[in-house]
Amino acid sequence: MKEGKMQARESVPGSRNKHRVLFYGLSTCIWCKRTRQFLEENDVAFDVVYVDLLEGAERDAAIEEVRRWNPATSFPTLIIDNERSIIGYRPREMKEALEL
Length: 100
Hints:
Layout: E1 9-12, E2 21-25, H1 30-41, E3 46-50, H2 56-69, E4 77-80, E5 84-87, H3 91-97
Parallel strand pairs: 2-3
Antiparallel strand pairs: 1-3, 2-4, 4-5
C-alpha cells in the first residue's frame, strides 16, 4: 500500500484480474488493512472504497450497497463478480473465490 493520504476510492492494478473485485472498507479498520494486504500480495486487481472517507449522498449510497450484500454493514465487505460476498478477513474463502 502506498504511503501518504488515503483516497476514498481507488482502483488497484494486479495481474490476477479474472474476477471483478469490489472491496468496501474503513480507513481505520485493521481487518480491512489485512484484506487489502492479502489482495495486493496475491497481485489481485480490485477496486476499493473506504466508506468513512466518503461524504453525503456518496457515503449513503456506498452504505446502502454494502447493506445489500451484508445486512450488518460490517467491514471489510468484499464483492466478487457481483455474485458473491465475503464478510470479514477470510483468507481461505478469498483464495477459493479468487482461484488463487
